[in-house]
Design goal:
Elements (H helix, E strand, L loop, with lengths): L7 H14 L8 E7 L1 H12 L7 E5 L4 E7 H11 L3 H16 L7 H15 L3
Parallel strand pairs: 1-3
Antiparallel strand pairs: 2-3
Helix pairs in contact: 1-4, 1-5, 3-4, 4-5
Length: 127
């Protein structure tokens, strides 16, 4: 999948913005970003979340060493169009969302979402 809007500059801006708002464990070695298409994302989502649908982003923590973010670029494009935002903005949100999941934040329960959602918004102000 070709992802011309997912640039090193965007990745760095998101990373720096996240670090301004949350503590990143000093042991983190790396965070990988993988870009996939619909078919690959649906397979991953089915395998790891038991949901046979295309999703926008999946996160896989590597213990305390970092993690991997998988972004479905076609889904990001569809969501950007649907939300009437730029693709860059949607990708920034997906990367932020993925990083926060790796750091242990969640939004499945209402009380957790009340922490994670505003944190995402504060982070995105710096991207």
């Amino acid at each position: 999948v070709v992802a011309p809007q997912l640039t090193n500059s965007l990745l760095q801006r998101v990373w720096q913005a996240v670090q301004r708002q949350v503590t990143v464990p000093p042991r983190w070695q790396q965070v990988s970003v993988v870009v996939v298409g619909d078919v690959a994302m649906q397979r991953l989502n089915k395998r790891y979340r038991h949901s046979d649908t295309v999703t926008d982003v999946l996160s896989f923590p590597y213990g305390t060493d970092g993690g991997e973010i998988v972004v479905c670029y076609p889904q990001a494009k569809r969501q950007a169009t649907s939300k009437q935002v730029s693709l860059r903005s949607e990708l920034a949100w997906l990367l932020t969302h993925g990083l926060l999941h790796i750091l242990g934040y969640d939004h499945e329960r209402a009380k957790d979402a009340k922490v994670m959602r505003p944190l995402e918004q504060r982070i995105l102000q710096y991207v």
